Hints:
12 helices, about 80% helix
Amino acid sequence: MLKASKITIAILSTLIGMYPIIYFVIDRKFGLLSSKSAELLNDILWNTMFYGHITLGGLSLLIGWIQFSKRLRDRRINIHRLIGKTYTVSVLISGICGLYIALNATGGIISIIGFFSLGIVWLYTTIIGYKTVIQGNIRFHEKMMIYSYAACFAAVTLRIWLPILTSILGEFLSAYRIVAWLCWVPNLIVAYFIINTKKYSKKELTVIHNSLNK
């Protein structure tokens, strides 16, 4: 069951991580952008922030799940660190861009607050996760990065929930306002239970100890 869940997460993360490519190869006024005004779509700053958000956010989603591979951490710690640094930089840029475009979120103040809060959580957990690994607190680093990727995974859960709620409610705007919160709050709750039920084996504790002394 656990292995199947990891495979599912890997597949979904890869598919949605590559999703931004679509915006570069076909007419981009589809999906969420179809609800944006022509004025906003022609705004240079908004476009810069939008493409910065989806491109580096997609990269974060694409590589982030790899970091939870125990085999990678045990055997290729240098690769783990390189991917971690790439993920952190990508999140910082994508998150800041995301805060800006959240201010023009479809659905008004409910959506704005929902997506802006998501951006804050994503940035905060990632920054603290990186800061704690620099300080040598590996276990707290792992916890924060689980929360960080749970927030990142909102890109996937949003695309699962939105068509379901739109179909149920029969209206896009109401569904989108709900999804602005539903796409990430349950993710953090799941992350909380994963963190608080995780037990470390003696071997894992040894690896953590060795990492602290490198």
